[in-house]
Specification:
globular, alpha+beta, Fumarylacetoacetate hydrolase, domain 2, about 25% helix
């Protein structure tokens, strides 16, 4: 079984290098086996760490109850954020930086201290957050046509790509993250909207799930970690030669562009 998981992991890594998506991996893993999918993800995480990449945080996916129902699950998923995935506000990414890219608006949390208590409460988690920021996640999929199940997306590092944080950092005690409103525009045209409550009712609910899950995994969240807490509204295709801008009330704005294909 371990050898089979390693082969799946290698196929996913190859898609990054060839810029060619692959068929879904779910048929190569036990049906609906989330643990096997996380094992594939871990194979690639270990490989990339050995190559010199560094984990700077975690991303949470599937924070929309509608998407959970669509994929037949009752919880979010997570993936690793690496240092070379982090962009600056206003950056332009190469055309081939992310396979089948889509963009979504999120709230990023930056931790002031590690979280090691498996019984942590939402209030204690909130006290552990140093700053919050508007963010864009550029999600991507190595699976052709985004034909994904929960097993596919978990194995594929939770469909991660790149992410960008706003230049402004906000004191989390000054804002109700569940009440914020979000607008995502593409080249100045509105493409998506939502609220903080779209993320499991409140971004801290998603972060609490992640914190407990990472403790159970034996890799608790650390001081300075960035948590991409989940989408505040529908994602949109990130086409070549376009600019995505996200505005979140109380948190400001952030933007990122993509090169043209030529």
């Amino acid at each position: 079984m371990a050898a089979d998981l390693a082969v799946v992991a290698e196929r996913l890594r190859a898609a990054y290098d060839t810029y060619e998506p692959i068929a879904p991996v779910r048929d190569e893993l036990p049906a609906g086996d989330i643990d096997a999918a996380y094992a594939v993800q871990q194979y690639n995480t270990d490989h990339w760490l050995a190559q010199g990449r560094r984990i700077v945080g975690r991303k949470i996916g599937l924070t929309s109850e509608a998407v959970q129902r669509q994929l037949g699950v009752d919880q979010p998923d997570f993936g690793a954020l690496f240092d070379d995935m982090l962009l600056r506000d206003g950056d332009t990414i190469p055309y081939r930086a992310v396979l089948q890219p889509r963009a979504e608006a999120e709230i990023a949390l930056v931790l002031a201290e590690p979280i090691k208590d498996p019984d942590i409460t939402v209030d204690a988690l909130a006290a552990s957050v140093d700053a919050v920021a508007a963010a864009i996640e550029i999600v991507g999929s190595r699976i052709a046509g985004w034909d994904i199940s929960i097993v596919d997306t978990i194995a594929d590092n939770a469909s991660s790509g790149m992410f960008v944080l706003s230049s402004d950092r906000v004191d989390p005690t000054t804002i109700d993250l569940g009440a914020v409103t979000m607008t995502l525009s593409v080249d100045g045209e509105p493409a998506s909207s939502g609220t903080g409550a779209a993320c499991l009712g409140h971004p801290y609910n998603a972060a609490l799930w992640l914190a407990k899950r990472m403790i159970a995994e034996g890799t608790p969240l650390q001081a300075g970690d960035i948590i991409m807490s989940g989408a505040l509204g529908p994602m949109t295709d990130f086409r070549p030669a376009t600019t995505v801008r996200v505005e979140i009330s109380g948190l400001g704005a952030v933007s990122v562009s993509r090169e043209g294909s030529s």
